Amino acid sequence: MATIRRKKAEPFSILQRDPGPWPTLLINWMATLGIIVIFGLVMLFSASYTTGYLRFGDSLHFIRSQVLCLGLGVVAMALFSYIDYRFLRKLVWPGYLLCLVLLVLVLFSTPLNGCRRWISFGGFTVQVSEIAKFEMILLTAHLAARAPRLEKLDPGSNRRVPPSVWLYQRLVRELIVPLLPLLLVLALLVLEPHMSGIVLTTAIVGTILLLGGNGGIITWAGAATGIFLLETLLQHIDSIPYLQSRLDGWTQDLSQMTDQTLQSLYAIGSGGVTGLGLGNSIEKQLWLPESNNDFIFSVVCEELGFVGAVLVILLFVLFLVEGLWLAFHAENRYCTLVGIGIMAQIAWQVFCNIAVVTNTLPNTGISLPFFSSGGTSLILLLAEMGVMVNIGRNGERARLERENLHHLREEQRKAKTIVLDTARNAQPER
Amino acid sequence: MQESPKNHKKIYYRLRRSDPHERLGATLRHFSFGAAVFFVVAAAAIVIHSLYDIQIRDGAQYRQYAAQQQLLDSTIQATRGEIYDTSGITLASTSVVWTIWADPSYSSALFTSQTDDDTKVVTKTIDPAALNEVSTQITLRLLSGDGAALDSVDTSSEAYKTQYQTVYDALSQNDSSYQVLATNVNNAVKLSIEKYVSEYNKAHKKANAEKGIRKGRVSVSSTKSFQRDYPYGAFAASVLGFCDADGYGTYGLEKSYESTLAGVNGRTITLRNAYGNAIADENATTYEAKDGSNLVLSLDVNIQEVVERYLNEAIKANNVENRGAAIVMNVKTGAILAMASKPDFDPNNPLDYSQNLTYLDELVHAEPELYGIYQKDENGNYITDERGNKILDPEGDYSGYYRDIQWKNKTITELYYPGSVFKVITAAMGLDSGHATLNTTLNCSGAYTIAKQTYHCAGKKAHGVQNLAMALRNSCNIYFIQLGQRVGSSLFYDYFDAFGFTERTGVDLPNETNFMQYYNASQLGEVQLASSAFGQAMAVTPLQVCTAISAAVNGGYLVTPHVVDKITDQNGNVIQEIGSNIRRQIISESASDAIRQIMEYEVADGTQGGGGRAYVAGYRIGGKSGTSEQLNMDRRADGDYKKVASFAAVLPANDPEILVYVMLDDPNNARTDYSSILAAPVVGNIISEVAPYLGLATDGVDRGQTSYKVPNLIGQEWSNAQVSLNIKGLKHQLMESSSDQTAAVVTYQYPRAGAEVPYGTTIYLYTDTYEGSHTEVPDVSGKSAEFARQMLAAAGLNCTVEGDANGLVQSQSEAPGTSVQRGTIVTITCG
After folding, report:
1. Which of A102, A230, B199, B357 has the highest CB neighbour count under 10 A?
2. Which GO terms describe its molecular function (chain A) (predicted)?
3. CB pairs under 8 A between A and B
């Protein structure tokens, strides 16, 4: 009888002195990130200085705190790139508890626009769902990675696993169990309420499971159904009053549209092919609400035109593909899933944000990573990027180790092998 | 080792705990990575497609919509042109003023707000201390005049309290976002308030517990506007008119020359932010404002002042109920030198009738047929008394009438029966048509009956046989009825029409009446013709009378009267010159000459009746008085018809330059209704000052060496006293009395009666004191004779020159610095 081998707990350290060598791709990926961050900072300054001046009497009102948080974020990124991912994995459950505590605490905060989403630590205001997203990436990756596998004893056999066993494995062990912690988080987010947080967290968790192969065909079928039912789904959440108004404004009819979306379309449309030029946006002169935040991409479109907007999108595509490559070439399943989760977060936020400003999706309030103003979001994102760096370097180390092992084996094999030709050639001489 | 198939089946798979070092399976890895890249690229394609649709396919449309909201089309206000009198004195000008307003809802320093957790309702509670501080500071600046002299403001005054309360109340309205604190604020005060507010906001930018400063701000802004200033107040008001609160001309010249004065506002089209403020825009387009042009009037403030002064006196003295009007006009060009309707209004504050309230209240009650407000029942029907007469509503709101009356230019808006003044026109008709000559004699037996209607002359006199000149002086109705009959209905109407009585005069003033009341040729029956011949059937405006009389004496030319002489641009260059416009010749030169003769005969040398009281020694004056009965109006309390006393004079009579016309509507002088006593002296008084001022030709008689005996004027009514002096060639000065008893009799005069004085000596008249006021004699030694005369006149002294009048003053009869009575004759010796 086969027994399940209980491995000894792997040794780990809190900080890795040298997580591994720097793969070229990781350096390229970080360069892409750098370009995006600097690009984002320039655009934020351009989009925010009028609002800052007119609302707060200080052109640098937004950019100053953003630069400060960027500095903190880079420190966080460096720190996280040296924290052993195994250590982080050990912390997922305490982290989950902390996250729940924060999500409960936030329900007692002062509401802003009817929602309780922000919690204050000293001078910093933190949106708890941002932390929850990070935590859910780590936790889901952990649970999905440690789900037990069905293993054929005889790989060559064509016999199929009975459907009930297969279903239980795929659905319960691989999907429902990793999803359970999410439900509690979602329930707390509903109480805030925070619809974009719910959608994003669910999408990120879903993507981890989907691309990680958990649930296999069931997850794919579920995802496909979800996309097809999106329209119907939106009709159904129509009954929630606070979403109602946002959905009512989601229309192609300009006269019915919410002013924010309308102004966004004006801004994007005004840009044309080449844009009005950096700094020349007119919509940012208070016409476009949240031009420094959720709607910063409209200002990018207005100032840099179609060309600039596509450039930004392509930068993100490049960044995501490189990031995903790093994730899929990580050391182990857990690292891959964490990498997928982090990249999924960026991908979903970028996609949803641009889809919202172009009126492809209803207005949800999702910020554009590295562009929108918002300090805690930037710090957390950069911390996540630090995790990616750690994963990338560990992955490279593992790859080199595998390669070395491979070479070693090859050499051992070569050493053991009798080379026929040599042997034959050697015979006549004998 | 053989295992049963059943057993084998059970264990051909197993659950394996995941290996922490295990990677994703190669197939899964490749598939998932491919799928992930596919998703990323697909998502990018979706959003790029959306962007393509918005930016390239529909870009132009969105750009257009965006431009509609982003473009700011702001007006650059043109400066309104000014109005000058003929010598360049400013009668109306425009200055920039500011409206100070606040946004109390945004002024967080002035209130504390609390949000109810459940209802989300924000309750704002005013902060009395802060409100008091800000209100006080703003009020002090508003009342300081220059924004700096805050200490000089009397905080206990009524004005301060009112202004403070206004500011305080406005700032307490913390739900409102627009509250006006003050209007018509000058630039210095505006700057001072802005400075104060910005300093206040700086100090309250951060909370400071030690100094007790709460964080907050005060939002006060200003808006530019223009204010029209009329430096002389209630002066030529019905001619100048006024502008409404928005700066549009509403009455008078301001209205008729609105487009000239207003100019053309400019525009700036530029980009704006959502607050509505312009933002830097290199493509901004600006069309400069074209400032309004200035009006230079033919009106002369000096003449206007004389006219208004004597007209006011006459209205008060004779208890004139329905206002009076006067015109001084150039008979050859139609240029109006003075035009007054009194009482009038202050164009700086045209809605305010409080100055005239007593008069206007009396007016509306004296003329209920014009301005009556009658009681109505709840159905809106009039309530009538037992005789079927409507009952005046004692609580009627007459304020609309008050304003209407004080604004109206009586000379062009109201019709009246011209009465005997019209006989000049009837005479002109007879002379020009050949139905009469100067020598045509007709008999007046005291009564004349046409179709059962018997006509009398005033006072039921029988004038006997008289020629045209005598008939005019006697103002014989019966003579002119017969003359009218000779002319005949058809021709009479043709002349009436030709003299311009059936149309507007075309004066460049608004609101000239379009309604005329006359009989045309077919309606002009025997009775109507008879009444029309002496001016009691066809109603006309005073200005129509003036143009007709002018035509009768100027050689027969009907001219268009005009107030504006020139239109100049902002640099003073003449854009347009409004010359005389002769509409047509009505009568021949010879007929006109005859009219001049008979009109001069009427005034003569002041010793005869008729127009004698309009005589001013030294000038040849023609004139005609008219006392008309307002047959279409209610009767007076004494049972007689309401009267209009009017007088038209032209001078010099041989070649008239100017016409002086005065009309008093509904005078109530206890002693007489006759225009020759009521209106003629006003004309005479006006001529006595205006004729020398204009330097009109005199009668050529040298009176320089003649001395005159001053008549005893004490006990005479002031106007008669003045007439006596006018006729003698002596000047007069009515000393303003504190009791304003202009109707009263003269109580004191200086020089005294019997004194021998030279021609042109000014006699000072008093109506309320029994002794003259004193004045200090100036030192005139070493001055030229003419300059010395002017200095002495300015001091209220008369002057005779001895010795060589071309030399300098060597000595003066009264020592410099001594106090003498006004009117004392100072003899200066020149050499």
Report:
1. A102
2. lipid-linked peptidoglycan transporter activity; peptidoglycan glycosyltransferase activity
3. 186
